[in-house]
Design goal:
The protein is α+β, with helices and mostly antiparallel strands and about 400 residues long. The chain contains 13 helices and 16 strands. Among the domains are: about 35 residues; about 90 residues, Alpha-Beta Plaits (2-Layer Sandwich); about 80 residues, 2-Layer Sandwich (Multidrug efflux transporter AcrB TolC docking domain, DN and DC subdomains), CATH 3.30.2090.10; about 35 residues.
Length: about 400
């Protein structure tokens, strides 16, 4: 079989060269398109169901949220393991699938079964799927820093939440931007219990009044003078003053009672359960880039960096991005090491093949003999063969003449 392949290749050199060029081009294309990462992703196909239930204890979250979700997720096809975790105001259910299961097929099936269990969950809960990423998808970390010192942590976190994160989330290949650090801005209503008791207003009325006042209401269309006018009621809060003016009813004599009469409204930070700091120099505002499952990490990091360079022009003067963690350096070093070792191995193999091919004993192994003489033998070997033949004929001729002339032989 090997002899036939060699003969076929020698007789069809153009086809062999064309196939070699096609294979080389396909290898170059695969080299440019294949995702390259320094950390192999060996994680299972996993879908996370996150549910927030603010203000509830872990035991209550476990009994009324985590347990119903876990039992329902056991029905999903090709499920291998279902794990649950309950924290203060938060439930997480991890659904692990069998090997070879497509992640997006798994997400669609989990969402299908999740719709059937929503009615059994407590009011105020909103289960949702986690990002379509794995445990090694955290490919990059950036720090939002103010070199001028004019912005505080609350203002930097506001830039992160409302400017930076939406822009970076839109980058192709990014599943999520996880923000950490700083202070999340919120409107806070500090109710005075003594004033509520004096006005005989329960705390529930304050909550309902504020919630219902922060809504836009749709109306109808009026036709006047050949034109249509859309009627609507605008009620969303624009500032803290709008919240102070919310009516809670009337007091003695018909005087209106507002939120400002029973509470203090101000803008403050949300309660924090952790901080982010850098090298012991103080708190920072940072964000983690989570890569989508199956993407090329090196390409995603480069696209995020290009977006950051464009986004810096839209930030206030002095606000810059500082690199915290970048896996691209590790990937490039791994590629350089692999390239170096491949070149070394190629040179060694070429030298070994060259040495063995130039060796006489090794070269004789692959020779093919024709009529008892090696085909690769030179002209000297052929001449020796013919000379030896002439000598054999001459000796036979001499013997015949001696037989005719000498009478001593019969």
């Amino acid at each position: 079989m090997l002899k036939f392949i060699i003969q076929w290749s020698v007789s069809r050199r153009v086809a062999v060269l064309g196939a070699a060029v096609a294979v080389a081009l396909a290898g170059g294309w695969a080299m440019l398109q294949t995702p390259v990462d320094a950390i192999p992703d060996l994680s299972d196909a996993q879908v996370i169901v996150m549910t927030e239930w603010p203000g509830q204890a872990p035991q209550l979250v476990e009994d009324q949220v985590t347990y119903p979700l876990s039992t329902e997720m056991l029905k999903v096809p090709h499920t291998k393991v279902v794990r649950g975790m309950s924290q203060f105001g938060l439930s997480a259910v991890f659904v692990v699938f069998e090997d070879g299961t497509d992640l997006y097929w798994a997400r669609s099936r989990v969402l299908e079964y999740l719709n059937g269990v929503r009615d059994r969950l407590p009011a105020g809960t909103a289960p949702m799927l986690g990002p379509d990423a794995t445990g090694v998808g955290w490919v990059m970390q950036y720090i939002l820093a103010d070199t001028t010192g004019r912005l505080n942590l609350s203002e930097l976190r506001g830039l992160e939440d409302w400017t930076v994160r939406p822009a970076l989330t839109a980058v192709r290949g990014v599943a999520e931007i996880a923000s950490l650090g700083g202070f999340e801005k919120q409107y806070q209503i500090a109710v005075d219990p003594a004033k509520l008791l004096a006005y005989r207003i329960p705390i529930s009325r304050v909550v309902d009044a504020v919630r219902s006042a922060n809504e836009d209401v749709g109306g109808r269309v009026l036709e006047l003078g050949g034109a249509e006018y859309v009627v609507r009621g605008r009620g969303r809060f624009a500032n803290a003053a709008d919240m102070r003016a919310v009516s809670l009813g009337t007091g003695p004599g018909g005087a209106p009672i507002t939120v400002d009469d029973v509470a203090t409204v101000e803008i403050g930070p949300e309660l924090r359960r952790g901080i982010a700091e850098l090298n012991g120099n103080g708190e920072i505002v940072t964000g983690w880039v989570v890569m989508r499952f199956g993407e090329n990490p090196l390409a995603v990091i480069n696209r995020v960096k290009d977006k950051m360079a464009t986004l810096e022009r839209a930030l206030p003067p002095g606000v810059v991005f500082v690199e915290g963690y970048d896996r691209s350096e590790l990937i490039e070093h791994a590629i350089a090491t692999l390239r170096e070792k491949l070149v070394e191995e190629s040179v060694i193999v070429a030298l070994v093949a060259l040495v063995f091919l130039l060796h006489a004993s090794s070269a004789l192994v692959a020779t093919r003999r024709v009529d008892g003489v090696p085909r690769h033998a030179g002209a000297r070997t052929q001449r020796q063969h013919h000379v030896a033949g002439r000598h054999r004929h001459r000796h036979r001729g001499d013997d015949r003449r001696r037989d005719r002339d000498g009478r001593e032989l019969p």
